[in-house]
Write a structure and sequence with these properties.
The chain has 4 helices and no strands. It is an all-alpha fold and 110 residues long. Belongs to the UPF0060 family.
């Protein structure tokens, strides 16, 4: 369960960092937004290394589902846009997929 905490915190820092770049490059805000963007993305990378997984690729794949949940939350809370029904369905499917990747049985590829 600690993995989900690391995933969630990493997602918040990744989204915040990318949003800061978005504000600068798409919304015409000050170039000073690059400073918190880079710091936030650095914290994101450090947090993602805390995930307890044997392989980085599997951890990153599972993280994708949590990232989507956090993104929909960001959409609702920060950008004040109500998620659509398709957003909720897609989010649920992604969380199920991420859980299968992280906790599912391991089948041999051979």
């Amino acid at each position: 369960m600690l993995n989900y905490l690391w995933f969630f915190l990493a997602a918040l820092f990744e989204i915040a960092g990318c949003f800061a770049f978005y504000l600068w490059l798409r919304q015409g805000k000050s170039a000073l937004w690059v400073i918190p963007a880079v710091l936030s993305l650095t914290v994101f990378a450090l947090l993602l290394t805390r995930v307890d997984a044997a392989y980085a690729g599997r951890a990153y794949a599972a993280y994708g589902g949590i990232y989507i949940v956090a993104s929909i939350g960001w959409l609702a809370v920060v950008e004040r846009v109500r998620p659509l029904g398709s957003d909720w369905i897609g989010m649920a499917l992604c969380v199920i997929g991420a859980s299968v990747i992280l906790f599912g049985p391991r089948f041999s590829a051979a």
